Fold each of these.
Amino acid sequence: MAEAVAEAMEGGRHLLVQAGTGTGKSLAYLVPSLLHRDRVVVATATLALQHQLVERDLPRLVEAVKDSGVDTSYAVLKGRSNYACLHRIREGVPDDQGTLEVELPTGSLGKKVLELREWAEEQSEDGGTGERDNAPRHTDKEWRQVSVNHRECLGAAKCPFGQECFAERAKEKAQKSHLIVTNHSLLAIDAIEGVPMIPEYDVVVIDEAHELTTRVTQAATDELWAAEVERAARRSQRHVDGDQANDLADAADALRAAINDARPGRFDRIPEDLADALVLVRDAARACVSAYPKADQSGKDDDGDAGLQQAKGAVQEVFATAERMAADLDSDVLWMSEGTERMPPRLCVAPLQVWGPMRDKLLSDKTVVFTSATLMLGGDFNSIATSVGLKPSEREAEHTPDTMPWRGIDVGSPFDYGRQAILYVARHLPQPGRDGMAPAMLDEIVDLVDAANGRTLGLFSSRRAAEAAAEVVRERLPHLTTLAQGDAQLPELAAQFVGDPHTCLFGTLSLWQGLDVPGDTCQLVLIDRIPFPRPDDPLLSARQKAADQAGGNGFMQVAATHAALLLAQGAGRLIRTTTDRGVVAVLDPRLATARYGGFLKSSLPPMWTTTDPAVARQALARLAAT
């Protein structure tokens, strides 16, 4: 793999590398990255991998080659809101009128914000990074009290604390480094949105590349709701002399009324009242931004007024989102989310596809190495290659002005899946329905968990299904400890799961990719159903419809590919070392009976397969007895 990565970097040819867990793939791209003549960016999807690179792999590699003359400088770079803002901590947070308020909020929020402020000041004194990941445990709401986004930032030249700024220091370090570690979202904003965030580079290595299109989509998704427009109007009132702030507040009322009249879900055509309200918000926000003063009476540049800058930034955000939504472009998908007790209904807009912008703005300009343990779906690279902007016909092609040649290699795995793992498909069970979990499926779960004597990671399609299964297992197998996602924070649940082998942990999507539990802790991975997207998923349903209209097979290109990726990630939780053993049990008979079952199974590791429940239970019982 290292040789293939080096060859791709030198030859300027894109590369897809499937490298299973345990192959040491991070070293296989970090070594050629340090040896490459120009700066290289490594982009990851998860904080866990970023920490592994920065805390473990890179320090070891630097130590190993310290006397070789290789430039081993590296830096971590994240979006501005990931760093504490010293101006907000010392000067205060804008209230609803845009006035800076240094006083702490009341209650537990105030206590946590004080703790975060003290931590940030310690970081500043000790030369720390001020990164959110290193902060005391907190919520998003608490972190917003000590951070700013890029629109709210005064800029280093105008901020009295610009010299100490954590985000600016991270940028300066990146400018001087040969290797930059960042995340998929920041890469997308820099390369695809065109907002300069990363110093000039030659090559990007994208690890966890199976996540890339989702992260790029998230980075290009905007939301708008009435309360946000209303708050931007209130914050503008002390900075705008005319009626523009009041007009924006009236537009917020019109938007609220239109949202209340609309039905949640995707809009093929925007309802007339909603379209009119979006135009009203767009025009009122534009007028409000224009009404902000450029200088105060003393002639001082008001860009140095943090309250004004942040209030103006909020209106600019509203304008940009309303303008995009009102444009109703074919290249975007617009929908309204369901409201909850804590969250009002909101409008969302996302790109219909991201492969075009990725091809035009990233692949055409940089050499890209994509790597993951899950890049081959249905037995080849075509699905993933297409999703990131590469054409299957360009594989191993010659360089021409119109082609982007790429190479795909599978470097295998150190694991012997045929001996270490069994794939059990419960062919005898009824197909999953919409009415919750069938009694036969719950019986099957209890029998398998009982045979394994705990040691079970249950991956479910919904929180309701996970909780229902957990309740039945607790009732029928009271001698085991059964945990459900939501009982505590995920790190706490994972620690309990690892600490006691007679434990089951049941949860949803975040467990599929966020948990690494090697050893005897996990000998049974339960998957309740093939993880197809929900039929009412606004974005994926729009992508499936667009694929059908283009003459393709939308179900296979979108729904089956989505399911194959998640299924492979879920099954991948079982075997994490060469000594692990166990069973992946898929309780959805369609994996064995449906026409698309072959495509899904060929996306999984090559495990020994059975549909006989007795074989699965006996194997689990033997493992539990050793």
Amino acid sequence: MPSDPGTLPSTVTAAFQLTAQVDPDAVAIRTPGDAVTITWREYADRVRRVAEGLHALGVRRGDTVGIMLTNRPEFAVVDAGAMHLGAIAFSIYNTSSSEQIEYLFGNAENRVVVTEQAFLDVVRQAEPPSVEHTVVVDGEAEGAVSLAALEAMTSEGFDFDAAWQAVEPEDVLTLIYTSGTTGPPKGVQLTHRNLIAISDAACQVVDVAFGDRITSFLPAAHIADRASAQYFQAIRGVQVTHVADPRSIAAALPDCRPTIWFAVPRVWEKIKAGIEAKVAAEENATKKRLAVWALAQGAAKARADLAGQELGLPGRVQHALADRLVLSKVRETLGLDQLKWAWSGAAAIAPETLEFFVGLGVDVCELWGMSEISGAGTINPPGRAKVGTVGPPLPGVEVRLGEDGELLVRGPSVMTGYRKEPAKTAEAIDEDGWLHTGDIATIDDDGYVTIVDRKKEIIINQAGKNMSPSNIENTLKVSTPLASAITVVGDDRPYVVALVALDPDAAAAYGEKAGIAPDPAVLAKDPGVIAAVQAGIDAGNAKLSRVEQVKKFEILPSYWLPGGDELTPTLKLKRRPIADKYAATIDGLYA
């Protein structure tokens, strides 16, 4: 069996080799409906072949390998193959524009990129100078190497066992590119020691065993999917069902029947809304009353459990009946009936959503983490959750508050630094090893952490994607000359919207030409102004990834002046005052 917590191997490669020997004929990787199944024996064999193929292309220990793939079995095979060379496999978001790809590959300096037919054009448009070989996993393509051909390559003198055994705990395992508050993404360097440490810590809080089942449907460029699927698989022997289209996750769950599961708040909210909509649409009055009653019994049980109390005998009897008649059947229909525990992270989840699932019999634990700490720093332990908090720190993780209330974290899961960014690394990690997270928090007497606010300016949408607002705004302003300021909003929202303040000079010039008074209230409704701003937004969007693109905007009926409600004297945006002042307008854009 894989090593017990506290006695794990020192590298993820060594852990993989041990795990692959537990039950070689067990299925390690699959897709819904068993369209593809790969046993541990087959997985290990393909990893060996991919490693040799990459070696034949010139990849060596410490080199980088870029991956732009959907959630598919080939991702795991390529990622693990590179890892066994001591190489640094990293993933980029599938929504990345060619300009973003060019920057990321320029920072990573990868000579090899592995992709699929759907992304081949945008990868080639990027023209990153370092890339020498493109590998396509789903067939043949001119000027590219197929994955089948890669796996058939031989490399003279290559010794697979010597290669993976040479990997050291301090070797960088992967790069996670995360948006900062300003400027381009930073490459978080995570080592084998980091990921072994976080796996060890997590397994002291939650049970993860060989044969447990999970899905991979979130972007592999996000640390959440990478740690919960790819590395948990290698270290603990988790079976992973790869779901290429995240929109089909609801249909995939009954097929996979996960025993452990991670999802961002937006997914939990959609599942909750789906259940409630089905109940509301039930035409049979008796069935509808039964469902409403059962959910109410579940809610009562959840409130008692989360408060550390027990229901009285009548309540326990009613809940048992509700579970037998309705709640257990809902869990089975959802595919969550074999779930031991689940967790939610990447963004804050509403307390009522957590209570709903606890009432349904699904133990969802909210956690807090970031790429810089290998994914997780705190987690609500199953059965001991405090709603509204993100739980106590994981074993081995130290937390404290700075003078301004900023949450500081120290421990073996903290990154080694940002790739080629020593100054930014020094800003993030102080001389005593404390990572300054940028989150304002409180810590109660039991050690449970509550995130109060973000010190740094960053957007985390409902799907958990981190975005730099200033990076989006700066891109849009370049192509929207009529605007003096553009403020984007999208924190904990399904998409990004923008508030546009017109530039007085540009507006006056437009008004004179169009025969319109330079009154911002009039110009904001003028079809020509709206079309010009729309054209600018569209041009800016073309340079942004899909999740960063502005879906709606509102031209404001007043100019923003330095030192006013919205701008500092040095023209910096006052984000919180803007959010408060224009709350109704923002809400209207999401209506």
